[in-house]
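Homework help thread (please don't just give me the answer)

Our assignment gives two proteins as sequence + structure token strings and asks us to describe the second one. The first is just a warm-up. Here they are:
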Amino acid sequence: MHLFIGLFFLILVENGFSAPIIAKRDTFPEKAHLVKQTNRIRAEIAEKKQIANMQEVHWDTDLEKIAEGLRCDNYKNPGANYMILAYPAFFGNATEKKYVIEAMVNLDYHVNSIPGQSKIGCYLPDIVCPIPHTRTSIVSFCLVGPKTSRDDGDIKKGAPGSQCPNGKAANGLCKAYYV
């Protein structure tokens, strides 16, 4: 009898019959690439500005979940432990695209030059958020934390990675402290 049941299940599997697998859609499939690029930018900023305590960032699922809840009407306000970056798609002309890219680079630079930022979480929403007076729309949100604003008093000057309370990572940035 057990042999019969075992053969029955083996035949089901062989023929492709199985229980459905329900998997949650990955909210941001390029996590590793984004973290690597962000840390590369942070290392460049640390080198250029001689920031000794610039931390590396790691993917944070809590920030990812918060980003998943952002909508067109609430994405502009920072939270208690994060800043928001919103990234547009480009549907406009070259001048408009240049303006939007410059604004993104300036905001990214501002957020990425904060040494205490150590977490990032992003979401690609199912909706797009039109940007008023342009032909572009927001297509993704990234939250970076735990800092909510820039404070130049947090910056320690010196060679990158030379003032790391938790040690220096292989990428030259400070290892972040995680609770």
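The one we have to describe:
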Amino acid sequence: MSAAERTARGWPGLDLLARLPAWSRFVLVTLAVLACGVVASRPATAAKDEPLTGDAAIASAAVDALRHPSAADPLAAFPADFNAVMGRSPSAVPAGDGTLRAADPSGDCSGPAGATTWDFDLSCKSHDLGYDLLRYAEIKGQPLPQSARRELDTRLELDMHDRCRVNPRGSESQCHAVASVYAAGLEFNSWRQRWSAPGHEPVLAWGFGSAVVVLLLLARVPGARARRRDEGPETAHPAPLPASPDRYATFLRLAGIGLVVAGQSLLTLSRWSGFGSQWLWVAAWVLQAVPVFFFAGGHANLLAWQAVRADHGGYGRYLTGRLTWLLRPVLAFVLAWLVLPLPLQLLDVPEDGVELFGRLIAQPLWFVGVYLVAVAATPLMAALHRRARLLTPFALVALMAVVDAVRGAHEWRTGGYTTLVLGALLFQQLGFCYADGSLARVRRSAYAGLALVSAPALGALLVLGGHPGTAVALPGDDAAGAGSPTALLLVLALGQLCLVMLLRERATAWLAGGAPWRVVHYARTAPMTLYLGYLTALAAVVGSLGLLDSPSTAMTWLLISGVPRWPALLVLLLLPLLRAFHRFERHQALPLCRTRETHRTRLAVTLGVGYGALGVVGFVVTGFAGQAGSLGGLQVDALQNLIHLLLGWYLVHVARSGACHDRGPWLLTALACVPPMLVLEPTSSVLALHGATIAVALLASAAKQDQQRAPEHWQPREALQHP
């Protein structure tokens, strides 16, 4: 096979990785995971830019006494209740340079060699006592600034090198080398913890979780021999394709998500700039095209399910085809954004702006998570559509109203997510009606009348009902409250879908032209490339307007006070990433589907879609930083989100390849569910979900493995591999 043919079958980077020796693949993947883990494990900044008062101010003065030792007693500057709060009993100890150092004689020393070789013991214990002062201030509710920990680390480094000169023990060069290595490790750990107070970290969970991420990635990257086997025969015949795609429905799917992303960015930028977003409520609701996206998505999902059934396929084959095209670019995007901030943080740019921008980027991923649920529910909802075409939408509306009432009466946080899912299923159900031609039989005058009525009705509900001007949470908002009241959502959907049907004929004629359809076709085959291009332009706008740091001019766009401006650096990093994603999406091709409809296939794809959706929506809640969050009662963080997303991606792959009939994938699935249970305080929901998955995976691995892989066959590409 020629290089061009290989490129057409898959991403060249993956092919190159597969051709490397197994040990080289292991090293490269491990290094990449460690880099992602370092970024993801960094906690949110705790220090606040405000004057210190009370006990925190006294603790800051005590830290100053430790940073600048003298002959005066450093304990005189300590808070009165420090010993009681921290359980320490420090004393003033004379040092060899004539100064007094505060140290706890019974405390441990985390420095190298301690008192055994070069006598770093006193300096090390004084440094550790300084860390206790940082923890004390955090307990008091006013964390000390980052400079406090920086200078404590610098003090220890200077003291160690001083001891090497005063007490070399015949090996001064070795002593300086040990001191330099330890100082570098100390600085790295302090940087990783954002120079805040050291705290208890789930080291076991993070270490085990990183190992699981490595295993999931290595299990998904085949060797060269497996790659050649997966390429399959050149004479494979594709399955029958459905009728020619509805260009208008394809356009609606892309336009719907594009309008929501643009509207959310507009509101976020207006908030960052100080321009009140309440003045933009009209534009916000015009751009709130959530119903249109799921309406058009329902059309695509129903056609995909019908195409698989016509080709004698089932639920497992349908889900693997629909999910593979979606999870691969999303996972690549998430991995890229976990690594992308690393150069910015190494340059010590302000992390607040980078974190806020990262949350803005992660926010639209809730679309993907909810859409995964809608895709998985399509066979069931299609059956309901056949048996109760009119009753099903009204039942979903009633459920939304009940959830909305319970949510308002009992402050049910999970109700927001439930409303989003029910709304997506409702709009998908209307998309089924569009796909079978039911909506085309309604008179245009009826659509026009309903569209005219919906606009003033929506305005009245907004003004008289006192509802917010937007239904989508912005970065920093509570994601659980993202769902709007049911009445508002239904009126908005009514108006938008009526307009969609009114414009159908003209838009279809417009898309029949060559140029418009070529643009739409490119957008649906490279959505993440377009999104990265949009983010590049957005970062340039944020940097130019100084929305997250300070306004810039042509001369200060790259540097400000000698420090690189993070938006400019982000743009420079995004440009080569754009090229990589373009090649990834344009050249990716799905491997042959070797699965057959078995219990293991259906179990694998069901768990895959569940954990994939959990991982995607988890990043919406936590962002790409190290802070934790709550998702429907589940405590999640960046590493757990990554494991969930990788596990979903892996399970869909093993179902598609037929490997779900082997024992290994199920044992790896059980292993991947262990890290979330190793956090410091796992909740009952976390234990229940992952414990149940472990039990099911072990049962699947222990059962008799008598399923054979089916003959190779292709999926219906147009119906399955694009949104």
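TA reply:
I won't write it for you, but here's a hint about the kind of observation we're looking for: Strands lie at 91-94, 100-103, 559-560, 563-564, 629-631, 634-636.
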